[in-house]
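Re: beginner question about structure tokens

> Can someone show what the tokenized structure looks like for a real chain? I only ever see the sequence side.

Sure, here's an example I had lying around. Input first:
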Amino acid sequence: MYKEISQYLVEWIRSKVDEAHARGCAVGISGGVDSAVVAALCAKACPGNVLGLHMPCYSSPQDTDDARLVAKSLNINYREVNLNGVYDCLAGILEDARQAEEMRELERKVILTPDSERLASSNIKPRLRMIVLYYFANLYNYVVVGTGNRSELEVGYFTKYGDGGVDILPLGGLVKTQVWELAKYLGIPDSIINKPPSAGLWSGQTDEGELGFTYRQLDEVILTGTGDVRIVEEVRRRKAASSHKMKAPCIPDMNITTAGK
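And the corresponding structure tokens:
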């Protein structure tokens, strides 16, 4: 089964690169299983024309070690772009902007929580990574290949115009548990496959901890429509709340009559 899936996705990636009249693929390599699988598929689709970019931003050193392991095992072009400095600079500018009197007046009318402030700051990181990916993609005429899977897409577990800002999503039709199986078929190192999934947004952050359920529980709901009642309801809530992430920006219908002009 996973041999056929692999072959299909390799051909699909190659066709999308050709359709874009591009030369290859730019992929963000986080050190996790999704990006490792995508990088492996791209290496087969566009041999010699894949750039893996690891973009640490106050990230775990283990993630960097794992990203290097992936790139070395796949023998792809690899670069590291440390974003600590640019993150600090932008975060400082934004904090200064918040201190302006009119902004402080606005914030008095808005209920800010530690969670909302942490999320706003953390989402800067994937958006900076998107900028880096498109810089190199523009430079080398590559397509930006995203690493999101169906499980994440179904509940909006990605940053809009961050890790969601890509050209193609090869894993968009596979749930996380299927990605793990595909990773085994592709020979991704066990240490990468067995690593707790994390977006690396803050120290100790894990996907499942933030979601409040496991990927296996989520995948059961996605694939069968059944499961723990609490999880089914939470999946529905998240899907509805994040539906805007899966759509192009709304444009008003300007079919206005000109009678009486």
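Each token stands for a local structural state, so reading them left to right follows the chain. The radius of gyration is 20 Å.
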